[in-house]
Request: fold
Amino acid sequence: MQNTYIIYVDVFFTVNFIMDYVLLYLTSKILKKKCRKVRLILSAFFGGIYSVIVLVPLINHLSFITVFSIITAFIMTFLAFGFESRNEYLKNVAFLGFTTFLLSGIINYLYYSTEVGTIIQNILKGTSNKSVNTRKFIFVTLFSYGIMIFAIKLYRVQRKNERIIFDVKLSFRGKSIVTKGLFDTGNSLKEPISGKIVHVAESRIIKPMIEGDDIAVERICVIPYHSVGEESGMLYGYRLDEMVVIIDDEPKFIYNPIIALYEGELSNRNKYGIILNGEIMEGF
Reply:
């Protein structure tokens, strides 16, 4: 005897709409994109419509579903994140697919391989199987969403606390140099008058840009410092025009940065030439 399944289209659409919105929101968090909610809702609505369309027997075939799923992923990505460039667009599509795969794996693991599924079944009591299954699915989805949000935030905190090396470009009056910059939470120097954060660079890197320039003399400032095991002292700093830090393949611009000059080497084997202030990540 062939089994017969009853599908409630309104419930099926709602569940998929919620699921798609969660996936899009998580993807935006992973990509660090500021997206308008209306775009995410529109994209999730389109995904919900697609989930209902594939129920039609005429297109409910593996080959059709595969093709339509790929097309839908591209359309949903465009609706949610727009189109900046081909590489950026393809990256967004790939991350949406990665997030979908990851969240689906978490849901399946929680539901089938842990006590969470059993607990949810005991907690969520309904008047019909439809009610129980729908609420159960939504509960597990939101629970998984919470886990992923926590993991993303934990990862970002870890990244901020790590000593990470970035590509850095410094510019002053038409002259530029490119070096490596070390993000270090231990550097908390600030210029005492303005209160602006200070980055420390090897003088050999900065001097070719400022030597013989009268404007550079006007932009000089003195920064007091104190390090563990050493006496307090003073560093001479300069207000440059611009500093660009490449973070996650995206340029982050800092205008009029204060760079203190250090006479000596900051690292062995020239791994980096500037130590970025620990507060630099807060604006990113």
